[in-house]
Amino acid sequence: MVYLIITVRIISVMVLFLFLILKTGRRKIAELPVYDFLSIIVIGSVIGADIAEPNIPHLPTLFAVILIVTLQYLVSCLLINNKKIARKITFGPTVIIQNGQFIKSNMKRLKYSIENVLMALREKDIFDLNEVEYAIVEGSGNISVLKRSQFLPLTLADMKLKPDTKGLSVPLIIDGKVHDSNLQQLQRDRSWLASQLDQAGIHDFSEVFYADCNMEGRLYISKILQAKNFNDDFTL
């Protein structure tokens, strides 16, 4: 009976928590503001106690989860609408390198050492500080870097070239099933698709695991292949 109670509690809490998270928005864990992160820790403690001790009443736990998530949502709305409060209870972006020079006071306030900064820059493939114009520590703790103009990669805009717009690729076949509605969007039909597959040596739609087509009319085709041990072909 105890195991049944624990199972019901886990399912009910997870369903409720998932519903509340979907309603309040989603973000990466690394990008959560401080208050959101604290809310997750508190919710974890509440749920953990509820699951570990079946004698604790379950409904108060569900109420606590709803209350915590509601407070988190209200605080998030407050931070969006009031930047002055947001700056006081969250970590805003902080410049640690400006015009190629370290800002020691900001690094000290953030408890960032030079070693921390150098490691973060190496993770962005920057091994020479002469390449850095600005480095900013974001609220998530990640570092954003603006390189000096002479170290930026050459773009088509720099060459005064206008790139063609590729657009999105549209799935035409998924697991052997043809998506006729997508063919119609491309103003194509099954006869056209069959002729394209014939050129690739494929004579039946069921042989195709996945196929799509971009706005230029270029197809990508993947057959249904049998499972195979990679080491049969390559020695690793």
TrEMBL record:
This protein's record includes keyword Transmembrane: yes
Coiled-coil region: none
Cellular location(s): Cell membrane
Keywords: Cell membrane, Membrane, Transmembrane, Transmembrane helix
Gene Ontology CC terms: plasma membrane
Predominant localisation class: membrane
Positions of transmembrane segments: 6-22, 34-52, 58-80
Annotated ranges, domain YetF-like N-terminal transmembrane: 3-76
InterPro entries for the chain: DUF421, UPF0702_alpha/beta_dom_sf, YetF_N
Residue ranges occupied by any YetF C-terminal domain in the UniProt entry: 81-213
Membrane-topology annotation of the record: Multi-pass membrane protein
Pfam families, A to Z: DUF421, YetF_N
Family to which the UniProt record says this protein belongs: Belongs to the UPF0702 family.
Protein name: Uncharacterized membrane protein YcaP, DUF421 family
Organism: Sporobacter termitidis DSM 10068
